[in-house]
Design brief:
two-stranded antiparallel sheet; elongated; alpha+beta
Length: 211
């Protein structure tokens, strides 16, 4: 089972968004189960569960884990193909966000467009690397910082911009033969702290940076 799978096909995305099918995916991510075992957990008849499982299997979201005999019946044990799923903007290709339409480093919506492109591009790279049976060279950094004031946050952004820009100038080799282009995305946003009711966002929107 993969940790995360990116769903690029519109039909597969629609299948995964059905509430009952999403519930089945969650159950099968915890371990293999048959339609009969799942029926009580999701509150559906076994025949209906089988119907949903076949739809999920058709889109590659679940797979056969094995079979077992139970009386005169052979049960198919299914499992999720991933622990979690992310829907790529490719599933809505005609209306997917395009961060190249505008560049506004202080726009949260532009950051969202960058994030959508990141999901799309990395999803495509994962698919290609899997087909080629090659390891994908990526790097990600995640962290949190508490700023004492808006002025401190602004100073941090200035230093971050200068530092990343200097690294890009230092290592960029546009004329290198055999070189490969890489995209760098750096973002800064307020931390979302979920509550029992709904997520809340602390402080005011912070600036974002893309290089």
């Amino acid at each position: 089972m993969l940790d995360v799978t990116v769903i690029e096909d519109p039909a597969a995305a629609a299948a995964s968004l059905d509430p009952k099918r999403a519930q089945l995916l969650a159950e099968l991510a915890a371990g293999p189960a048959s339609a009969a075992m799942l029926a009580g957990k999701v509150g559906l008849p076994r025949q209906k569960v089988n119907y949903h499982l076949k739809a999920l299997e058709r889109h590659g979201l679940v797979e056969l884990a094995g079979e077992r005999r139970k009386g005169n019946v052979t049960e198919r044990l299914m499992r999720a193909t991933a622990a979690s799923y992310v829907i790529s903007p490719l599933a809505l290709a005609s209306v997917q966000p395009d961060p190249d339409r505008f560049r506004d480093q202080l726009s949260a919506r532009w950051m969202l467009a960058l994030g959508a492109r990141l999901v799309r591009d990395v999803g495509l790279l994962i698919t290609g690397a899997a087909k080629a049976r090659k390891r994908l060279a990526t790097y990600a950094l995640d962290g949190e910082v508490r700023f004492a004031s808006a002025a401190e946050r602004a100073a941090f952004i200035q230093e971050l911009t200068a530092g990343v820009s200097a690294l890009i100038r230092k290592y960029d080799a546009p004329d290198a033969e055999g070189g490969r282009d890489h995209r760098i995305v750096v973002a800064v946003h307020p931390t979302v702290k979920p509550t029992a009711a709904q997520p809340t966002v602390e402080d005011q929107p912070a600036p974002e940076l893309n290089q």
